[in-house]
Amino acid sequence: MARRRRIGPKDVTQHVVQRGNNRKVCFKREQDFIVYASWLKQYSEKFNVALHAWVFMTNHVHLLCTPRSDNLGVSQMMQSLGRKYVRYFNDTYKQTGTLWEGRFKSSLVCTSTYLLNVYRYIELNPVRAKMVNEPWQYKWSSYHNNALGVLSELCKPHDIYLQLGTTCTTRLSAYRSLFNETLPQSLINEIRVSLNKEIVLGDDEFKGKIETMIGSKLKSGKMGRPVKQKVTLTPF
What we know:
By secondary structure, this protein is an alpha+beta fold.
């Protein structure tokens, strides 16, 4: 069966996940994370992809990113990064064969209703996995940049994120407040379904816009009503 064509219009944000083959470990020590992050930065810049949120788990990675040039940017970034890291991993640990579980999965994200929720979904991965109690306790996550203001050359803030406040301080405070409420399980399930089935995470209006962009109908998929993303703006 032929592979379904990737859909990745310019300036449309994507949620990307790449898993280790059979869920096996992809990062065995801290140096592995450092190497992966370095090449992610290199290839995101080369293929003009803006990274907004990310988490590197031991056996998979999540990225929230937007291609800024053309619809091949994310695919080119992930393919180049994947091949480079596999060579490094196999050489380092004297292994052969594949590391990743096939090609990466992705879904297009409706920014007006889902973006900040996907930010939270990604950065709460270590908490859901019971690796830590709070997102700031996990080192390999963009939470430190988006919530705590730690400088990162990987992260490029999305316009929706910038609208959280008029200053860096107010944005950070507003972003942290988003984590005061638990993500509903229904929303977690919806995000997971959109990734696994590689369908659009958004309402009918958003899907219609994507269909107009690509000139064809999208793969159908039953999705629930979106959970409104909470935005709290501080008054100072």
